[in-house]
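Table S2 (continued). Query chain:
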Amino acid sequence: MPSSRPRRSVLYVPGANPRALEKALGLGADAVILDLEDAVAPTEKAAARERIAALLAVPRRPDAPEVVVRLNPLAGGLGIADLAVILPAQPDGLLLPKIATAADIGAFRRAAAETAPGVTVPIWAMIETARAVADPLSIALATDGDYPLTALVLGLNDLAAETGARQVRGRAPMLPWMMGVLAAGRAGGLDVIDGVFNDLSDVAAFEAECLQALDCGFDGKSLIHPRQIEAANRAFMPNEAALAEARRIAGLFDEPRHVGLGVLAVEGRIVERLHAEAAKRLIARFEVIASRGG
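Corresponding output:
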């Protein structure tokens, strides 16, 4: 099932930028993706690996954001070189780019096991190719293995480039793919993170896109700049009405009189166990957010 860990704001941070790395963990994002792929020039890859490994070696506070490293693809050798340096440093997760089929997940798991035997790190998968959105379910269900798949991340810029779909306001050309990936992720029990918004100057449109992603069911939004963090956190923050409803139903099936029941009627509304479990996750996410000061 989806995690109770909040992932409202997931900020990409270039691994080649020492100043950005230094500030990344204190910006207020729920998660940061330290990027070794698109944001790093080929000549800077080796230095960026070492820089990220050094950052991961520093003990993090309990309220620090989740730290995920986006690797390079395995093909060509850059991803293998990344694994050799990053995997022993044990980030909170590894983001795998250009995942097209479930076989790509299997290839990563084999490479990781050979590179650092005994080290297990959760993995996230980028969904950014035409092949991936044609069959996201097979990827989302590739959960068996020592490196648990925990999240899918939409890469709509790459997808637009590959398909020719235009990225217009409202994202009508993309919505069928987005919802297919969302449904696949939920079928696999995964968190699903929306893609980035490219125009830093259009704050209103960014906020609208966050709310659209929330309405669609996404757990959060990936970001390209720290100035987007506050709006994403606010958009995906459980509101008081949702929390009140969650608190009302979360423990219903734990009461002795309801043990063994699968469905209840509460104030004229049907409540199933799945609703209670979702309510518990919502409350748990809120409690983590509250413990960090929002």
